[in-house]
Design goal:
Elements: E1 15-19, H1 25-41, E2 47-51, H2 59-68, E3 73-78, H3 85-101, E4 106-109, H4 117-130, E5 138-144, H5 150-166, E6 171-176, H6 184-193, E7 198-203, H7 210-222, E8 226-228, H8 235-250, H9 255-260
Helix pairs in contact: 1-8, 2-3, 4-8, 6-7
Length: about 260
């Protein structure tokens, strides 16, 4: 059975999604809507949502609640679009502390949501909703939050290359709202200077908030024709979340996987 239907290959192991969290209430609303979709796709699955910062419940609180409620194992899903500091350092530290408090609780660490081909489908969905069309006269900027992790930034460049192959955009480049270059505004200006008639921008962001506002403001000021919304509540994200969950459940008896889940 596919990840997007029915009871699926796993429902007995709870899913705890951990998002970054934001002071902007739009962010939590969008993330919550994504995991409402997950619950609708897999009605028998216990789906919990928590955050690393700014929003309750925190990840540690949610894990303690699961442990005190009698859960023997949990799949922890980083609700993040790239593997960077939060998924490599922050969240593993949370899991280590949870293991110390409840060593009987088996924690299975799923992969981050991205990269994934379905997320490119979601980007194209948001662009189409905003009125952008892939055509030779239009260039595209794929703008992420940005990271100090070079590997995470390279993932965005690779996704931009994949969008270019899907085409027929005139050119596709990656941009970063923080921590790396080019910024969305600079990317838009440079594309216009290279002779592209129009530039569309898509924020490769999980939810609206500080970074999505920065992407929109910079891109519009620089002359972008269209700025698509962050991914937010799209069906593709829910399907990816369940695929990551199913993979973690299927691999939970693998010694290699268990070792990898204990950074």
């Amino acid at each position: 059975m596919s990840a997007g239907a029915g009871s699926g290959p796993g429902t007995s192991v709870p899913l705890l999604a951990v998002a970054h969290g934001s002071r902007d209430p739009r962010s939590a609303e969008a993330v919550s809507a994504v995991f409402d979709r997950v619950r609708a796709l897999r009605p028998g699955l216990d789906v919990r949502l928590s955050y690393l910062d700014h929003v309750a419940p925190g990840a540690e609180e949610a894990l303690d609640e699961l442990a005190s409620g009698g859960a023997g194992e949990v799949v922890v899903l980083p609700a993040l679009l790239t593997a960077a500091f939060h998924s490599k350092v922050d969240l593993p530290s949370v899991l280590d502390r949870a293991r110390e408090r409840g060593p009987w609780l088996r924690l299975h660490y799923a992969d981050t949501l991205g990269p994934h081909p379905l997320l490119l489908d979601a980007v194209e969905r948001r662009l189409a909703e905003a009125g952008a069309r892939a055509e030779p006269e239009t260039a595209l900027v794929l703008a992420s939050a940005g990271s100090s992790d070079a590997g995470a930034n390279a993932v965005i460049r690779a996704m931009a290359d994949e969008l270019a192959e899907r085409g027929p955009w005139g050119e596709v480049v990656a941009a970063y709202a923080s921590a790396s270059e080019p910024s969305p505004g600079r990317a838009v200006r440079e594309l216009l200077e290279r002779g592209h008639r129009r530039v569309a921008v898509s924020g490769y962001l999980l939810a609206p908030g500080f970074f999505s506002d920065r992407v929109r403001e910079q891109s519009t000021t620089a002359g972008a024709s269209v700025v698509a919304d962050s991914l937010g509540d799209v069906p593709e994200l829910a399907r990816v979340a369940l695929e990551r969950y199913d993979a973690a459940v299927a691999a939970r008896h693998s010694p290699v996987r268990e070792s990898a889940a204990r950074p």
